[in-house]
Amino acid sequence: MLGSGDSTHIVKLRGLPFSTTVEDVLDFLNGVNVINGKEGVHLTEVRPGRPSGECFVEVQSQEDIEEALKKDKENMGKRYIEVFSTDRQDMEWALNAMRQNENGFGGIPNLSDDMGIVKLRGLPFGCSKEEIIQFFNGLPVAPDGVHLLSDHTGRASGEAFVHFTDKASAQEALSRDREKIGHRYIEVFLSSADEVRSYSARMEDGFRSSRGYRPTPYDRGDRFPGGRFGARGRGGYGSSGYGGGRGGFRSRGGGGGGGGGGSCHSVHMRGLPFKASPQDIAYFFKPIRPVNINILYDNSGRPSGEADVEFECHEDAMRAMRRDKNNMDHRYIELFLNSSPGGSAGFKPNRSFRNY
To answer: Is the pTM of this model over 0.85?
Structure first.
C-alpha cells in the first residue's frame, strides 16, 4: 500500500474537501517530488466512505518537504489546506486504523468446534491483523483466523477473536496474557465457537445500528456521585477499567474544568461534538496512544461534550496538550492537563471489564 517502504520524508495535509482525489493532491503539490506518483499519496477515512479530510504524502527529500510546507494555508477549491511535516509512525498509525475499519469482522469462514479460540481485549486503536499474528508468533493461527471486533457504532472496539488450529494451541496462547502490543497490555481469554457465532448473529441482526443495545448496569459504568454533571462516564476505550474486579467497571469521579482528578497522567477535553466516539478521540491524539478514554455524560445520559483521556506517562500527556485548540469536525477542543512529572499513572493492568 505504501509507495516506498523506506521513505522517511512525509508530509501531511489537513482540511481537504471530502471530494478530494489523489490527482487533486498531486496538483496542489505541484513542484514537489512525490515518490511513485499516485502510489505515494494516501487519502484516509474515519470509516469506509467517510473521508477524514487528511492525507499523507511520501516525498523524495527534505528539500521536497520544505517545498511542500510553502503551500501551507494555500487553497484547494474554497478550502485552505494545512501542511505539516510528519513521520512514518504517524502515517502507519493512521493507515492501520483505516485498514482495521475496512477489514473488520467480515464473517466467520470455516468455523469449527474443534478449533481453539481466544478473545483479546485492550488492542491499540489501529492494531492490524498482522500485529496480532506476530503477537502469537510460534502458535498456529488458523488461515483467516483473526477477526477484529466492532462496537455498536461500527467502530473498532479494541477486541478480537483469534482462531487456532487446535484447542491445545489456544490453551498455550493464554501464556501471552499481559504481554504488550506497542504500549498496551493485551488481555487473553479462552473463548468458544458459540461465543463467536453469537457475536456474528448480533452483527447480522443490526447490532451495529446507531441505537446500539440496552446496556447492563455494569456496561453503563456509573460514575461516583458529585462530579460536575453528577453523572456517568462510559469507558469506551482503554487497557484497564477501575475497580469492580473482573465483572464490573467503574469510572473515576470528578469531571469538571481542569481534569478528572486522581494520580494518573490525564488530559481533560471540553467542546467535543456530541457524536464523538472513543475512537474519534483516539484519532484526535494520534500518534500518541491513550490507555483509557472516559466520555462524560450528563444526568439524562446524553454526552456532555467532555471526556477524560489517560496516557501512560507524563511525557505523553504533555505531547497530547499540543493538540489544544485543534478542531474535531467543526468544533475546536479545549484541553486541560492533569499530570505532573513525579506523578504515577493510575493505569494498572488488573482484570477489569472494559465497556467499549
So the answer is: no
